[in-house]
Amino acid sequence: MASRSGSRIERRQTGKSRLALVASLLLTTFCLARLACATEEWQTLKDCILIPNHANDGDSFHVRHDGKEYIFRLYFIDTPETENEFPDRVANQAKYFHIPVANVLAIGREAARFTAQELNGRFTVVTRWQGARGQSKLPRHYALVEINGKDLSEELVTEGLARVFGVRANRPGAPPAKQVIAKLKQLERVAKLNHRGAWMFSR
After folding, report:
1. Residue 160, Cβ density class (10 Å: 0-12 exposed, 13-18 middle, ≥19 buried)
2. Is 157 within 8 Å of 138 (Cβ atoms)?
3. What φ, ψ does residue 25 adopt, rounded to 5°?
4. pLDDT of residue 190
5. Cα(55)–Cα(96) distance, rounded to whole angstroms?
6. Which residues, other chains included, contact 109 with Cβ-Cβ below 8 Å and sequence gap of 6+?
7. Who's near 107: CB < 8 A, 6+ residues apart?
8. DSSP 8-state secondary structure symbol assigned to residue 185
9. What is the pLDDT of residues 133-188, one digit of tens each?
10. Is the Cα dihedral 117, 118, 120, 126 positive or negative?
11. In this structure, what are the phi and psi dihedrals at residue 17, rounded to the nearest 5 degrees?
12. Angle formed by the axes of helices 101-118 and 87-97, to 10°?
């Protein structure tokens, strides 16, 4: 009898341990889900300031907001490289614009100047902190940038200084990514017709 009683106690303890384990796993899953949702929430950072940095280019730059430094990379577009550090990427950009590699780098530097000029003042960054990789020790995140009601990505495409290419995002309360791409493509067609930026060298 003592043996059977001991077996029942062991089974109860084992059952309780399993329930505790399942409860712990469910709690962990719930917490991770809440954390994932939190990181996907969009945030608006107003009164941002551009931080001069040798790594800044047309679509990626250092920003200061509320005393903290960030690196942001624009959604939806890609400006040409400023240096031939990544030959395959530069070659791909040259193919997109139908221009020589040397012109890609020149347009990349022009895009960097244009962005620095546009961000010469206060501007707004909208981000959900999606990682954009990069080589800096400081994390880089994708974002949308607005200056006095203008969208920086649209301005770059309008000037022929960027291609419609890259990571997309659906922002709550804004047109879906599909519509954003359609608008950017239209701006790109106009820039091409008017031989703006990179399109002036297009063969």
Report:
1. buried
2. no
3. -65, -40
4. 98
5. 23
6. 82
7. 79, 80, 97, 99, 160, 161, 197, 198, 201
8. H
9. 888 889 999 999 999 999 999 999 999 999 999 999 999 999 999 999 999 999 99
10. negative
11. -65, -40
12. 90
Token pair listed for 98? 């139908």
What's the burial of 25, exposed, middle or buried (CB within 10 Å: 0-12/13-18/19+)?
A: exposed
Give yes or no for a contact between 36 and 128, defined as CB atoms under 8 angstroms apart. no
Q: Where are the alpha helices (DSSP H) in the chain?
A: 2-39, 87-97, 101-118, 152-158, 177-193
Q: Give CA–CA dist 199/203, Å, rounded.
A: 9
Q: Where are the domains of the chain?
A: 1-39, 41-201
Residue with tokens 């994708």: 142
The residues facing 77 across adjacent strands are 164
pLDDT tens-place string over residues 51-101 = 999 999 999 999 999 999 999 999 999 999 999 999 999 999 999 999 999
With cut-offs at 50, 70 and 90, classify the pLDDT of residue 22.
very low
Full-model pTM: 0.80
CATH of domain 41-201: 2.40.50.90
SS3 59: coil
